[in-house]
Amino acid sequence: MTGTDNNEKSNNQNLQIVVSKVDKYTEIGIQCLYIGIAQDGQPYVYFVDDKNWVVMPLRGRKLKRWFRKRALALGDYLRDDDLSEIMENLNAIAAVDDVRLQVNNRVALNAQGDIEIDLGTHDQHRVLLKNGIASIIEKGSQTLFNQPETMLPLPKPATTGDWKKLLPFFNLIDDHQYLLLGWISFVLTHPKGTVPYPILIAIGPQGCGKSVLSRLIRALVDNNSAGVQLFPSEIRDMAISSLSQYILIYDNVSSLSKAWSDKLCVFSTSGSISFRRLYSDDEETLLLVHAALILNGINSFVVESDLASRCVTVRLLPMDDDKRRDEAEINRDLDSKLPEIFRGLLDLCAKILQVEQSVKVLHPERLMSFSRWLAAMEQVLELPAGKLQKAYSENLRESALETVAENALAITVLKFATKHPGKPWIGTATDLLVELNKLAPPNTVHRQAEWPQTPISLSKRLKQIAPLLKAQGVECGFSHGTQRQIEITYTPPETAKPLDGLDEPVEIAESNVKQLDLAACGPTDK
Predict the structure, then answer these.
(1) Across the chain, how many H-helices and E-strands are there?
(2) CATH number 1.10.10 is the correct assignment for the domain at 407-490
(3) Which CATH class is domain 163-402?
(4) Distance CA 96, CA 220 (A)
(5) CA distances (Å), 83 to each of 46, 47, 55, in order?
(6) CA 248/CA 231 separation, integer angstroms
(7) 62 and 56 in contact (C-beta within 8 Å)?
(8) What is d(CA 220, CA 345) in angstroms, rounded to the nearest whole number?
(9) Which pLDDT value is given to residue 389?
(10) Nearest 5°: CA angle at 179, between 175 and 183?
(11) What is the pLDDT of residues 115-173, one digit of tens each?
(12) What count of Cα atoms within 13 Å lies in the side-chain half-sphere of residue 303?
């Protein structure tokens, strides 16, 4: 036998060893793992044991570490190439078997219809919210949770809790404390894909505590090493981030384009984006998008009415220099109180869930599920029926008014309507355009992009901004008879604000802020 023959024989033997190793651990994977495809189309695996069940992405680092540890215990070493082949084999099995899995991130609806919250701990403990009680599940839960690499543990709930200890960290005006508490508890109890999430907008000057507020929400709802991020340039980046985070927090937002406003609306209510993995691909890949969003900034940046109707806006107070605290001191104080706060929040959530479906909604809004949650929260906190719902409606109306102020035609129509309270104005589009031209902001009438130049253009634009105006009490009617006419009717909202000074910056004096007595709320911590 020649030297070449010996080399070929040696190479064939080595090749046989590699193939056998891949086959060996593929078979181990088949024997030890349950394999399926999640709702996002990605393959996952999980173990069946006496603990709470947790899934792993089939191509993820966690599963690769599991195989390497398994191989090391059996005296083998798996290279990257080996692992890639094993994963491809298991992926092929997942595609053929097509077993469907419901994989959850942080919050889930279990098979019995109760809420489970993944604490993200190594012992895989969860919180069960059932029959008005929050309890810890140490083992036996078959609800499938994915724990991404960036996930961090939530606070370990104390034996007894008090959610009211949240309040000193809020630094909010008026009833925004209630709305923020409602938003946190709503997001913590409603898994992705089940309800639309209101987008939380936090507005305030520099040094008012926006970063502390963001950290607090992150720690209580979805602790994650991603922390607070800069706003992305592409929606695909945001969608990918939502795969490993339950809530997304973006800092220092100053403006939003119409395109981004539309995309955020989809994120709020749930949808999907399509893309091709490679330029040569003919088949589209869908990426589900749904997450609770927090956007903070110094000035208002929501200008599209469709987005404004999906937001909850909270305004932080300016902070006097003599009341400032070192951030490290605040963090230590917060960390020491988080277990008690978290337990109190869980107890509150459990009680609200118990009555959520039986309450009556007095002030329905577009995101009806959040209005219902606030109605249930009123009952649990023993507040007057409709108090929080009305605060939410007023919050939406104020946000809508800000979007009106950004639209020259809308603010002019609103000013025109307020001059005819109680009695409808009826006339043609030509008549209305003449009247509006008289009230238009300076140097606006001749700007085609901002102002209608013809009666037909006015009618079209008026229909587009009708939802904006309706939120401010202005109804626009259009007749289609022989002579087409427009009817403008104004009914002042209960909380209508004066239109003067809309373009001026809002300054908030602490002495004018109404402090809410949340400490007087009902027995939520019993």
Answers:
(1) 15, 18
(2) yes
(3) alpha beta
(4) 40
(5) 17, 19, 18
(6) 10
(7) yes
(8) 9
(9) 96
(10) 165
(11) 999 999 999 999 999 999 999 999 999 999 999 999 999 999 999 999 999 888 888 87
(12) 16
Instruction: Name the residue among 213, 288, 218, 269 with its Cα closest to residue 247.
Output: 218
DSSP 363: S
**pLDDT tens readout for residues 172-198:** 876 899 999 999 999 999 999 999 999
| CB-based contact 295:457 (threshold 8 Å) | no
- What single letter denotes the amino acid at residue 511? S
How far is 499 from 506, CA to CA, in rounded Å? Answer: 13
Closest CA to 407 of 333, 498, 302, 478: 302
Cβ 497 vs Cβ 398: under 8 Å: yes
Q: CA–CA separation, 246 vs 199, rounded Å? A: 13
Farthest CA pair distance, the chain? 108
Cα-flanking dihedrals φ and ψ of residue 364, to 5°?
A: -70, 140
Question: In the sheet where 247-251 sits, what is the strand order?
Answer: 229-230, 247-251, 292-297, 199-203, 311-315
**Residue 261 amino acid letter:** S
Q: How many residues does the chain have?
A: 526
Domain(s) labelled CATH 3.40.50.300 in the chain stretch across 163-402
What tokens appear for 5 in the block?
């023959």
104 and 118 in contact (C-beta within 8 Å)?
yes
Integer Cα distance of 468 and 460 in angstroms: 14
Place of tokens 């839960």: 141
* Residue 127 contacts residue 117 (beta carbons within 8 Å): yes
Model pLDDT, residue 491: 87
pLDDT at 495: 53
Q: What is the pLDDT of residue 104?
A: 95
User: What type of residue sits at position 345?
Assistant: L
Residue 293 to residues 119, 212, 315, 366, Cα–Cα distance (Å): 20, 16, 16, 17
Name the residue with tokens 């070493």. 77
Strand partners, 229: 250
Q: Rounded to an integer, what distance in angstroms lies between the CA atom of residue 27 and that of residue 10?
A: 26
In sequence order, what are the residues at sequence separation of 6 or more whose Cβ sits closer than 8 angstroms to the Cβ of residue 485?
426, 427, 428, 478, 479
Domain with CATH 1.10.10 in the chain: 407-490
In this prediction, residue 377 carries a pLDDT of 97
Residues of the chain falling short of pLDDT 70: 1-19, 174, 275-285, 322, 494-526
- pLDDT at residue 10, rounded to an integer: 52
**Nearest residue to 267 via CA among 186, 192, 178:** 192
Quote the pTM value.
Answer: 0.82
**Nearest 5 degrees, angle CA 134-CA 389-CA 402?**
120
Sheet of 34-37, strand order: 34-37, 43-46, 54-57, 145-146
